[in-house]
């Protein structure tokens, strides 16, 4: 644990960490997935002449972009500016992040030889990320939690196998079913990369981590249990000793919430489809809940925004009254690039005052 981290911890308990661990937060904690990104004019400006991946390996830039939404919106969490494919790139996988598309893999991983050739991630290869974390911890107010993250093995596998974003995940699901042994080899290697990346971030001092299994909602519960849960469980188990809240999130995962909690989550992330009190009931309580605001609510004007915020806050309160450990306010997925940054600031203000 870094020196900086100990000093931060000695101060007031962070509202976000309190809510994640069943303590009473001093104010209602809020952060937004993709809060650091194209909705911010200062982000667009700083990124004009720099590529996405290049930016992720520049510690000063990572620190600056991570801080931007905290300064502007007064959120209770800072999410490390990076991407789920950064550890793969760091390990040596040839890929790019294409604006408007997402990650694109130069040579998709489809055969036994491809899986065998997938490199391991060494700690020093994510040195830029851990340097950025030290810098951020030096700047972040004591009350604001720094959230590290990684892509879950399934979501990473889907990009590697498909070669980029997919609607059907057909090659991914085909490998999973047709060659479970190869699938498990690939998932095992990705699990190792994810663990190395998260442990590096935790050693550098992040206060919480979020495992993004963004596309797990493409699977049935039975397939998730058979092909994904053992690997995601290993990720969660290998970071459990840090005693830092582990958030687990995916889109369209209403049917998977229980399984995604059982792999070892302390906080379950919920998309806009399932109300938080319903989600808390589904997972059997005992964990904190996060999310559920539809990202487009931030675009619909203040009256709609206030109505929706009141709804989510009410459902969060009901979830906690019924046995959820706490409630962290967030969206059901990321801030959309066309969102007015000032609406986001007003949302945070409302969440802190309502
Ligand atoms: O503010 C934050 O949330 C921190 C940064 C963050 C990014 N990506 C920055 C980014 C985080 C946490 C991620 C995770 C990520 N990346 C996920 C999981 C979260 C989710 O959205 O479900 C996934 C699936 C990816 C893969 C990826 N990278 C996608 C789908 C895209 C969007 C493509 C596009 O242009 O719309 C990216 C690129 C990306 N990652 C951007 C940002 C700010 C946009 C690129 C840019 O600004 O040029």
Written account of the structure:
The chain is 49% helix and 10% strand. With 354 residues, it is an alpha/beta fold. It has one domain: TIM Barrel, CATH 3.20.20.210. Helix 9 crosses helix 11, helix 11 runs parallel beside helix 12 and helix 15 packs across helix 16. The structure holds coproporphyrinogen III (CP3). The site of coproporphyrinogen III has 23 residues, from strand 3.
How would you write the strand order of the largest sheet?
Answer: 1-4-5-6-7-8-9
Q: Which cofactor or ligand species appear?
A: coproporphyrinogen III
CATH class: Alpha Beta
CATH fold label = TIM Barrel
**N-to-C CA distance:** 36 Å
SSE order: HHHHHEHEEHHEHHHEHEHEHEHEH
Give me the count of strands. 9
Instruction: Give the low-confidence spans.
Output: none
Number of helices: 16
- Class by alpha and beta content: alpha/beta
Q: What characteristic shape results from the CA principal axes?
A: globular
Helical fraction: 40-55%
